């Protein structure tokens, strides 16, 4: 694929650049706010768990990168981030008759909301992976870890909060990484190899590739009515490693 010629991947990235941030972030916040109906009665706890799901990956990766110019904490960088999240959270959880939530979970609406969510998530994974590679040249841990965190949706922090309050259902992401963490890692690895190491793609093409991967996966999963997990090979690899470790412990 020639970097000098227009491509599908470049077109995807350019289209995203042309869309105002608010047009993507509002749908993103609405669908995230609908994920925790069981916490509605706990008000501020619901607010902060939802915020971590909406912006936790970007916030944590920003703090770890410590570069307020190129990777600012979104909540501190612009007033509209906090305002949009607060209004979206309230509408989804407390609008009369749960009308906004009921509309948000309808399939056609949910598909549009998830396209916006996955576009922002993929763009953040690409941006954090690229910045980490620039700041720490030759060190693969930095882009892979920070790209994964950016795509995790704050799952690690959410697990800490929900675990401390008895709301955590199932194992923690620290011990059994779920789809958000695995797909974040897959996106970071794909971008890191194709853009920064092998130079097959330009940064904009790499971003377009991750966006297409996440968006197409989300569309197929919604249309099929069940999650189609492209990260299962990673999950199986982790399971094999855990099984081998258990065997070695028994032998020891």
TrEMBL record:
Primary location group: membrane
Organism: Symbiochloris irregularis
Protein family membership: Belongs to the TMEM38 family.
InterPro entries: TRIC_channel
Coiled coil: none
Membrane topology annotation: Multi-pass membrane protein
Keywords, sorted A to Z: Ion channel, Ion transport, Membrane, Potassium, Potassium channel, Potassium transport, Transmembrane, Transmembrane helix, Transport
PANTHER family (alphabetical): GH25683P, TRIMERIC INTRACELLULAR CATION CHANNEL
Cellular component GO terms held in the UniProt record: endomembrane system; membrane
Transmembrane segments: 21-39, 45-66, 73-92
Domain of life: Eukaryota
One Gene Ontology term of the molecular function aspect: identical protein binding
Name this protein carries in UniProt: Uncharacterized protein
Location of the protein in the cell: Endomembrane system
